[in-house]
Amino acid sequence: MTGCSTVRGGSRWRRALPRPTARGDRECHCGMGADLEARVARASAAVDRHDLAEAEALLTGLVAEDVPDSRLRCRVLIEWSWVRGARGDYPAARSGLTDAVALAERAGHRSLECEALRELGIVLRYQGEFRLADDVLARAVRTASEIGDFLEAGQAQFGRATIAHHLDQFAKARECLVAARRAAAAYQEGGGTVEQAELLLANICREEAVSARIARDFDAARALLEQARERYAGIGRRVGVANALRELGAVLDQVGDEEGARRRYGEAFAGYLRAGRRLGAAAVARRLGFLDLVAGSLRPELYARAETRLRQALRLAGGEPTNRAVATRLLGQVARLRGRLAEAEALLAQTEAVFGLDGAPDGPHRGLSAVELERGFLARDSGRPERALEHFTRALALLDQDADRGAASIAHHQIARQHVEAGRIGEALPHAVASFTLDEDDGRRLGDPDDRRSFYLGNNATYALAMRCAVRAGDGRTALVVATAARSEALAAFVRAGARLSPGLSDLVARIALITAEADPDGLLPGLYRELEHATSTELRQALSSSGTGVEDVLSSLPPGGHALLLDVMEDDGGTCTRVWLRAGQPPLVDEAALPGPVLEALSRYADAVADVGWDPQNDDLALLGEAVIPAGLAAELAAAATPPPLVVSTGGLLGPVPVAAVRVGGRFLAELAQLSLVPSFPLWIALRSRPRRPGTGVLAFLDPGLPGAAKERRALDQALAPVTSVPGDRLRAALAAADRFSAVVVSAHGSPPAVRPGTHIDGAARAGLAQALSLAPDDQLTAADLLTASLPEAFITASCWTGRVVQVVATEPFGLPTAALLAGARWVLAGSVDVGGAPAARIMASFYGYLRDLSPAAALHRAQVDYLAWQPAAPPSAWASLCIIGDGYSTPAVRPGDPEEELWTSSR
């Protein structure tokens, strides 16, 4: 976690477009008055164009003149003050606007009084006098409401919302923005100009996005900012566009898209400089400095650039309190990270002085919380751990934790770290869990899968600390919740909801199939598969709810006498395996085990799909793997069981590519000791178990006659599960589109080894993700993408090489043939995790089909593999253990034979 709170800064100078003068505001004038009005009009036009130099030149003489027309005099004061404020001369702007308010009030120019009050409120806000600014803007709202000026009322309410954000009054900010929207609607209904309404609505959208960003509703923030940018661009407001881009950069930064954030910040900075807006440019320089500061942990040379940017922010707008406070605090952080601790302490004292507070504030104060957080880091670096804990605790106390979730997560995380370093795990755990919960709740809300992955990586330390605290505290319940977070979450939610993918995805799948059929001379397929996986993940995420996975959810889903075992490694420590063991009537047990060097080497060979990896002698490595992944208590219960019990293994990021059945436990194979069912994650397991059972009879099959043992498999199918409806490869896709009337689909074909890294390349020999494929013919591949558009029965069986390989990366959906089949309606899949031996596989499958008529899939495969081992006890894993059940392997009856008299709608025997 970064050591910086997400304090928002960078207020913007803004001005309303010219309004029609209200009736009664005009005084009689002629001659010289007409000339004065023309000069004032030219100055106002220059202001509206943001041509500050011309406006200043025109207004300088007007301010010094004796203007008898009070209305014109008031307008001159407002325009002149606006220019002074845009130049950063806030005292002069304040003085001029104060005079304008008094003059307008005396002369009865109510509309000008509203405008002057609103502009004065903005200046006071830039001077850091937030409460006085809010009082002035509240007066502007009352005055505007009295005269029915909805535009001024909406603008003033918008200004109050920005102040509420600075004061951490998030509920009030929302109320003001709602009132501003009501005023904007009333203004439009009353015939107000489109341009003025659009400006107000754009401002409201942008500030609503700030609220959403602070609450870490990043999808809403991004949508609001895109809307704001379009509105600003539509009325030619370049500074407004820059404001929206700056906020968009902040959103991208918080979801972990550093490149996107820098790009948006750069565009905003250029826009501000072109418009002469020093304050906006300062805010961008400050945020770029923060990005360099964070990146400096890996590239220390960036600390110097961060310091340069932050000092640039002070040069551009050092007089604006928020900019001064945030830039100074970040400079203190840079000083600490560069070892200048005394300088860091002095800069933090300067930051606190900017707030002008004596003692503790009455309520939440994000600015002071950020200072306390940084003081905690400083105390830690100075070797004062208990003092650091005091500062972190105070930083948390200064926050509205419900509203400012990001800062609260950071503070909880640091408090937990201090307790861990002191050996106080019991005190650390609730804070570690609170930090994890805040991050996970926010991460689940992200609709874009790329944002989810970036967000997880950016907050990975939160997840890792919560898991380590749970393991050390022996808290199996918490460990389960942390371990299942960001694992197949969207896939599980989609299955649980019983949803179907949209027709738009079918169109994209059809495009991919067309290119595949015509070859790919332009190299389009990798990009199209990435597009399809992104679009599919996005649709899946729409089904997400806020609920996580609990112990009771897993236990209630287990078959009688069953066990569940979660195995995983954290992304920052691939050498340590976390194990959570669950069984009915007992509390969950959690521990961790180091993975020995030979085990890591073996896992790496399987992960990289090394040729013939499953055919090597490896009993010693498999025994070491068993010791590392199977808890001693579970091993003892499996060995003592009268009959092998069900065992659901959540393979996570550890065992997905491994033939789990061949893991050795106490001198025996795991397949001998348990009826195994594998799942990428427990959330997906629970969703599959809760899926309603669907009727269906008979088997739809494609068996490649060129495969060794194909005839034997076909005879076994006919004997055990007739009737078998066969289709040729060129008709299989059409049949799969309506295959749910069967109870099983069998596709026996060559499978292709996957790419080492998912999505790296797509060709006939190396496939991954939705490009994972079965070869129906030399030039015809049935891909996982094709299965997305299918309607499958409960069983999908493909005893083919590599088809059962599921690579689980945290916060990324584990796409492949098995998971695509589950999405398409299958309840369980039989597939090969590595290279599958032809003749041995045919023998095992023949036995499997015989058992499947009366047993669950997991029990049937267990019996078939044990039978083979009795015949060939020294067989390597690829000969017998590569086949696995993925999904719910405990449904019975697994496959329903059909009526032998049923008319077969297609046959190719």
Question: Please, could you describe this protein's structure?
Answer:
With 909 residues, the chain is of the alpha/beta class. Among the domains are: 42-190, Serine Threonine Protein Phosphatase 5, Tetratricopeptide repeat (Alpha Horseshoe); 193-276, Alpha Horseshoe (Serine Threonine Protein Phosphatase 5, Tetratricopeptide repeat); 474-568 and 594-893, Rossmann fold (3-Layer(aba) Sandwich). The chain is 58% helix and 8% strand. The strands form 4 sheets. A 6-stranded mixed β-sheet has the order 9-8-10-14-15-16, with helices on both faces. A 5-stranded mixed β-sheet has the order 3-2-1-4-7. A 3-stranded antiparallel β-sheet has the order 11-12-13.
Give the strand line-up of the largest sheet: 9-8-10-14-15-16
The CATH topology label of the domain at 474-568 and 594-893 is: Rossmann fold
CATH architecture of the domain at 474-568 and 594-893: 3-Layer(aba) Sandwich
Average residue pLDDT: 88
Strand content: 5-15%
Query: What is the helix tally?
Result: 39
Sheet with the most strands?
6 strands, mixed
Quickly name the level 1 CATH class of the domain at 474-568 and 594-893. Answer: Alpha Beta
Q: What separation lies between the terminal Cα atoms?
A: 62 Å
User: How many strands appear in the DSSP assignment?
Assistant: 16
Uncertain segments of ≥5 residues (pLDDT<50)? 1-32, 756-766, 900-909
Helices and strands: which structural class?
alpha/beta
**General form:** elongated
What gyration radius follows from the Cα positions, in whole Å? 34 Å
Percent of residues in helices: 55-70%
